[in-house]
Amino acid sequence: DLEWGRGTGKTTVLAAFARRIARDLPRGVYQWEVPTYQKFLTEIIPSFIHGLEMQGLYKDLHYFIGRRPPPRWRWPEPYKPPVRYDNFITFWTGFGINLLSQDNPGAGRGLNTDGRLASEATMLDKKKLDEESGPAIRGSNVKALGERRFFNFRLMESSTPLVQTGEWFIKQQELAQESPLVHRFIRANCV
């Protein structure tokens, strides 16, 4: 988990991880959860696109947002592809990311994903993370991907919580102290 101040590059780090995950989990599927879909469109996705460009990956060449790649490109499909790609990012390896927002009740229910990204985590409802979208992290194809490095990987990022409902995120640091080989918590500030 990353508790980083504003302007420290949280979304850029997510883009770097997305590139690595796309290579490690060909045809795998992740979920990326945020408080509202509007936040995805106006704040997070533009920074993510920029972060991927910094990694040498370009929209509509290495990945597509909200639509399938051209059929003539013959990209592999994820093991669990969506019927509609409206809220989905698909990469050249067949890896894909479901875009979930907590302002859509039941988001994530019924999915089978291989891991999770979460942005603005302190604004997310922890109970919804655990009970609605969390159970979806059960694997899209455990036989093919279960031994890969980024299978069952979770990365949450946020700035410091400003309200008490986000305190759960800070408590993730205790998990990291109790199980440092399993959990990480990194705090940084932009100066």
Helix/strand class? alpha/beta
Q: How many β-strand stretches?
A: 8
Spans of at least 5 consecutive residues with low confidence: none
Binned strand content: 15-25%
Encode the helix/strand succession as letters.
Answer: EHEHEEEEHHEHHE
The amount of helix comes to: 25-40%
Quick one: overall form? globular
Number of helices: 6
End-to-end gap: 20 Å
Q: In this structure, how is the largest beta sheet organized?
A: 8 strands, mixed
Explain the overall architecture.
The chain is of the alpha/beta class. The chain is 29% helix and 18% strand. The protein is built from 6 helices and 8 strands; from the N terminus they run E-H-E-H-E-E-E-E-H-H-E-H-H-E. It has helices at residues 10-24, 37-54, 126-133, 142-145, 167-170, 172-178; strands at residues 2-4, 29-34, 63-65, 88-91, 96-101, 115-118, 153-158, 186-188. It has an 8-stranded mixed beta sheet. Helix 1 (10-24) crosses helix 2 (37-54). The longest helix has 18 residues, at 37-54. The protein is globular and about 50 Å long. The mean pLDDT is 86.
Précis, in short:
Helices cover 29% and strands 18% of the residues.
Key traits:
alpha/beta, 18% strand, 6 helices
